[in-house]
User: Fold this.
Amino acid sequence: MATPSKQAHYDDLVIRAARDVFAEQGFAAPMSEVAKRAGVGVASIYRRYPSKGELIEQVRMAASQLLLDEAERALAEEPDAWSALVRFMRRSLREGSGIGTVLPPMDPQHVYSQEFRDLRERAAEAIEELVAAAKQAGVLREDVDWTDIVMLFKHLNPRLPTTEHRRAELRSRYLGLVLEGLRPGGPELTGPAPDRAEWQTLCDNFATS
Assistant:
């Protein structure tokens, strides 16, 4: 029987491989490709994740956990609200983070666990707290909502035909431009920010036939 540390290492290998494969090849990519990328057997993946839907859920849970961890650390450790927001965005988009459009689509046939839903809600609440603090401090423009920050991750991390190292360089470059636009004093933004329901629909990205 695998020890908890070995199981965690195995999960990390498979989840990272699945995220990369689905990002490059789409949701239809075979599990054999995930196994090859992770350096494990196909049968062992199916023993751990009986369906592709369950593996997709774990990939998305890993992303939500990263966002939650980064938001909480930024709030706790940074000296001011702007530094906390900038740190959160930069760390979330660092090389290998997997945040953005690289997340695979959700399977409408899969029943997602309450653990998944609770974790996603906790991450959203932490990001909302970061944004509220920055607004209260007067360092973030008033017409920016927390959902705008999450949607920016999708825009800043598109699928590009290059290495993850180069994608990370580009994310950091364009994030620098975006951060300047988040400061108060710019022209009024057009259209409303996504509300929670629209944000959830856009981020769920349900797979279609």
